[in-house]
Amino acid sequence: MIVVKNVSKYYGDYAALTDINLEFSNGIYGLLAPNGAGKTTLIKMMVTLIAPSQGEILCDGKNISDMGEAYRERLGYLPQQFGFYKNYSPKQYLSYLAALKGIGKKEAARIITELLDKVALSEVAGKKMKKFSGGMIQRVGIAQALLNDPQILILDEPTAGLDPKERARFRHLLTELARNRLVIISTHIVSDIESIANEIIMVKNRRILYKDTVNSICHSLDGHVYEASIPYEQLESFRSHVVVLSEKLDKGIMNIRFVHPGDAESSWQPVKPHLEDVFLYEYRDEIEAKG
Ligand SMILES: Nc1ncnc2c1ncn2[C@@H]1O[C@H](COP(=O)(O)OP(=O)(O)OP(=O)(O)O)[C@@H](O)[C@H]1O
């Protein structure tokens, strides 16, 4: 449905993304990378807020920048920060947006009732949003992105600021929404998308590192992830010859999960790689730098 073809984006001399090639059809795609990797840049190009410096983005074979409104009619977008009026209720806010989109009053009322039910906000439909939790606000955001029943739904860091329970609810909602849509979710939190995404896209050094299923991406570290327990005193020297993924100190013993591409020692326990392992391994320099 959507093809990103040889796309690069420069801000002045700075290359944010270079030679990006991607194809999307229905399902959930998780765009996973640390902050600053270019997720928002890619998303902004895909929603026509900014134009690629090179290359093109096609929807059913047509360049989206030439399609204009015809493309945007098929698109629902939740930006990283979306503007809403906190003195409005969800119903007032959505009615206002529906009017801007040219949806008739009666039709809008029907759609809004349905949407508020879908995002589990029917009970607070008439309440001012100023007392809403982050999760409730994000669900209003999803509802506004769905007003035109879009075939393509693009959500930029939709789970930022949500607590674990709200994240779980969000995942259920997205799975439901993706049954007959293309859904793209950007995040730097592995657990947001690991269980729901049909494919994960990872961006590194301005390029696509992976676009594959979780299983296939995890295969890249097959046979290289281990767990071991070592005395605390050996930690420094251990760290110098493996890539540590996680450490837990328990009664003077360090339990370590790590990556080591070479020969293993007999005391190391090989374990099945998870997506979090790949994420921590691939972005170890960025993560260390942010410390
Ligand atoms: N308008 C701009 N002008 C100059 N540089 C920019 C601009 N927008 C983004 N950048 C730079 O491009 C790179 C990618 O930014 P982008 O916002 O796409 O990353 P991201 O992965 O979405 O991170 P975040 O989650 O923090 O938004 C960053 O180094 C950023 O500083």
From TrEMBL:
The keyword ATP-binding is assigned to this record:
yes
Question: ABC transporter domain location, by residue?
Answer: 2-230
Q: Which organism is it from?
A: Paenibacillus oleatilyticus
So which residues are the signal peptide here? none
The record's family statement is: Belongs to the ABC transporter superfamily.
Task: State the coiled-coil residue ranges.
Answer: none
- Name of protein: ABC transporter ATP-binding protein
What domain of life does the native source organism fall in? Bacteria
Q: Which UniProt keywords apply?
A: ATP-binding, Nucleotide-binding, Transport
Q: Which PROSITE patterns match?
A: ABC_TRANSPORTER_1, ABC_TRANSPORTER_2
